[in-house]
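Methods: example folding runs. The two proteins below were folded one after another, and each record is reproduced exactly as written to the output file, sequence line first and structure-token line second.
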Amino acid sequence: MLQTRLFSKADVFKLFLVSAFPVHVWAILTLFKWSSSLTLSLSVLEIVSVTAYVLVFALLESLVIFIPLSLLAYLFFSGVTGAHPISNGAAIILPVSISAAAIHLYRFLEIKAVDFPQWASLWAAGALAAVAFFIYWLRNNDKVDRALRSLVDRLAVLSLIYLLLDLISGFVVLLRNLAAS
């Protein structure tokens, strides 16, 4: 469906890896936050199972983020900027994913200075402003296009490691559920 002259299969896969990066970083940080209580109350196999479930859920969450945002980049912004489709997708996916993680920081850090609706609105507006800024910048500067593509290539390599961990985690979850039945 997305394979046209604008998006190749490799471009689609790279955009998926870019959308997976912030989600997996957030999932791993959350695991680290709770690691002390997990190690005190669970066995090693139970910790492996919890980690597997978290990573499988992060993979599913990455798909939920990737599909609508990449379609948005494909349908609306591919002709606007004249930039490479990877840059258009990254200019949308990265700010939205980072602001979603920042919205979750409210409960993670137990912030009391503002209430949650104000915090979420602030970061959602920041994401929209960042997307608009990136789209404007992409339209007027080829260096930004090259820099975003370079960033995507670097994030894709790291996200491949996360994807490998997701596949192993999916296998662990499958084995655990088959053993339970």
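Second run, written to the same file directly after the first:
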Amino acid sequence: MVREGFGDHLRARGMEPSKIDDAMRFVTEMIEHLAKNDRSVEDCDQKLMDEYLAQLIEDDESSVGRLIAMARYLSFCKRSDCSSVSWSY
């Protein structure tokens, strides 16, 4: 599964275990949100991701760490195009 590969990727980059745990939690929550909308990372679009980001902001859950984890995961999945939070790192 891509999620586990992402954890391995972060470990290979030397990320601290606690930060990996946080990143994996943030990514899992994003994937669950997509699934609730009958979508996945493979078929998400900009509109759905923008709505998710708006919800995170409204709920005061849009931390820098969360946004970076999401951007890294989308980049890892080669889906930088589906979110305005994605950038190269």
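Comment on the second run: Helices lie at 2-12, 17-36, 46-58, 64-76.
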